[in-house]
Amino acid sequence: MINIYYCVDKKLLGQQILSLLSLVKYCKEPLNVINLTVEIPEFNKKGKKFTEKEDKLCEDILKRGNEKSTYKSIDVSNLFKQKLLKGPNVHNKFYSYYVTVRLLAHLIPEIPDKVIYLDADTIINGNIKELFDIDMEGFEIAGRKDAWRITNYFQTGVMLMNMKEIRKSGLLEKACNLCATKKYICYIDMGALNDLCQKRKIISKKYNSYKYDKNCIVHHVCATRESKIPFTKKWWHRIKTDELDLMRKFHPEYEEFYSEYEKIKKENKEIFG
Questions:
Q1: Residues of 29-57 as b/e, b for ≥16 C-beta within 10 angstroms?
Q2: Which of 100, 117, 124 is nearest to 221 (CA)?
Q3: What CA–CA distances, in Å, run from 34 to 6, 24, 115?
């Protein structure tokens, strides 16, 4: 069983579906996928948590690869309010504070001792089992070195996590506390984890590639920029996988997933509206 967790609300349903479609294309092992979802209307009126309908849809996609695969959303709204919805980073203008939801994993009993964390805007290009099978003995987190750093600063969009070691060291609990007290300009949770993680393993960029590469295992499309109006808000806009027109323009190699996504939308109008 390969364990994976995401942090997704209904706004990111399209991203989640594309990621899952690509995941099951290459991985036929049973998958245990957990989604940490939040709904806090007093903080974000547009954010709606996953319900049983979304879970069923996502699980049906997973079962295309293996009938034993499962998908389950866990509402962590109260934990998010208790642990993270405070401090100097709450209204960060450059980086959504919702990214810190992933730091609650240690408090979720359903998340097992070894797990892969994936951002929703990831497209899988190979068997994720290769990443899951990396030896994590003595390490807390394995991730690729961030492309813009000269030190072993790891990028947190794709992580292999030794939750047994993390729960023992208190890494995520400390990261939650740091996010609630220390001001970060942009990368809130990534900054906190890199400040605190003492037992890190730097792995190949093929497990978290910012560009499409036929040899990569995970393509993280967060780095694809529209690049039309430099030094404006438009410049900061990053293509997300639910923006199909832009995705098709820059990544036509994923057409099979776009087409299947459109088919799923038509068949599930009660979910997509």
A1: eebbbbbbbbbbeebeeebbbbeeebbeb
A2: 124
A3: 6, 15, 10
CA 14 – CA 158 distance, rounded (Å): 19
The structure tokens listed for 246 are 């832009």
The mean per-residue pLDDT over the stretch 130-135 comes to: 98
**Burial 79-114, CB ≥16 within 10 A → b, else e:** bbeebbbebebeebeebebbbbbbbbbbbbeebeeb
Please answer whether residues 223 and 132 qualify as being in contact, where contact means their C-beta atoms are separated by less than 8 angstroms: no
Is the pTM for the entire model greater than 0.85?
yes
The helix or strand, by DSSP H or E, that contains position 129, with its residue range, turns out to be: helix 129-132
AA identity, residue 73: S
Contacts (Cβ under 8 Å, ≥6 apart) of 263: none
Contacts 24+ apart (CB under 8 A), 52-58: 53/270, 53/271, 54/10, 54/13, 54/271, 57/17, 57/264, 57/268, 57/271, 58/16, 58/17, 58/20, 58/33
pLDDT of residue 97 exceeding 70: yes
The pLDDT score that the predictor gives to residue 178 is 96
Q: What is the pLDDT of residues 16-33, one digit of tens each?
A: 999 999 999 999 999 999
Residue type, 227: S
Considering only CA atoms, which of 93, 104, 248, 236 is closest in space to residue 163? 104
H or E element that contains 75: strand 70-75
CATH class of 2-225: alpha beta
